Structure formats: C-alpha cells, structure tokens
Amino acid sequence: MYKIERKFQFPAGHRLSKHKGGCFNLHGHNYLIYIGLKSSILDENDMIIDFSVLKDIAGNYFNRFDHCFIINKNDCDWVDPLVEKMGFKTQILDDDGRDPTAEVMAEKFYKYIQDIFNRMYREGQIINLIKVDYVKVYETENSNATYSEE
Questions:
Q1: What domains does the chain contain, in order, with CATH numbers?
Q2: CA gyration radius for the chain?
C-alpha cells in the first residue's frame, strides 16, 4: 500500500455551544490539517496523485474556512445579525447541529475529500481509486483529532 500526506493551514474562529467551559466563548485557532491518502497502485506518473492536484482540491475547499467563523447551525439566530451588519464570514460545518469540534471537522473534511476522489474516479479523471486514509485536525500544536474509517 502506498501512502502520502499533505498539510494545510487556515485560521478560523468557532465556539462550542454545548461546552461548559471556556470553549463556549468565541475563540480562534490556526488550524493545521493533515490529509493522508492511500492507494494500492500508482498512476502513470508513479504517484498516488500529484501533490499539486491534492493542494488544488483540498485547498479550494479549505479556502471557505479561511478567516471565518465556523458555527453550529443552531447559532445562526444570533450570528445572522452580525453577518448582516458587520460582514462576518461564516460556515456551518454540520447540518445535524453538531458543534465544530476538531473531531467533527476531521470527519467532515474526510468525507468531503473522499467524495471528490470517488467522483474523479467515476468520471475517469484519475485511474486509481484513491482512498483517504485519515484526516487529522490540529487546533493547537498539542491538541488534535483524527478521523478515519478503518
């Protein structure tokens, strides 16, 4: 099995609406995201995928989170006036009302990237079915969460 990893970074704010401590309040992180990919075969360039293609795919997705406020959809009632009056950039990460924890972010990022690779394979844009091995989300250098389906 071949494996590669690529790092991405973006600053964003969030709050954890269900948290009983300080994370209930608005705060931010310089998120580091590690995406691990795997494949049992290599393409015609002897790669799983060119790192620049992965950068384009994931980077375009992560740009929507850059300098934004990632919210639980239940926070929309009080956030919407701020968006209208101050032009805040927001993203609802999860439609089920889960908070934007590192765990939820890792899962959502994993599933989004895997869906892109599945579509690219079906459309013949890539010859090998690339599997996302894991997504790791660092909120700080000491705190991270990982999602994988194995």
A1: 2-147 (3.30.479.10)
A2: 17
Is the pLDDT at 8 greater than 80, yes or no? Answer: yes
What's the whole-number mean pLDDT along residues 90-115? 92
Beta-carbon contacts of 37 under 8 Å, excluding residues fewer than 6 positions away, are 3, 4, 5, 6, 48, 49, 54, 130, 131, 132, 133
- Residue identified by tokens 């609406």 is 17
Residue 94: its pLDDT value, please?
Answer: 78
Quick check: 93 and 85 in contact, CB under 8 A?
no
The Cα–Cα gap between 3 and 128 comes to 13
CA 23 – CA 14 distance, rounded (Å): 9
Backbone dihedral angles phi then psi of residue 27, each to the nearest 5 degrees: -160, 175
122: tokens are 């079906």
Token pair 């494949």 is found at: 39
In the chain, the amino acid numbered 85 is K
Give the DSSP H/E element, type plus range, for residue 40.
none
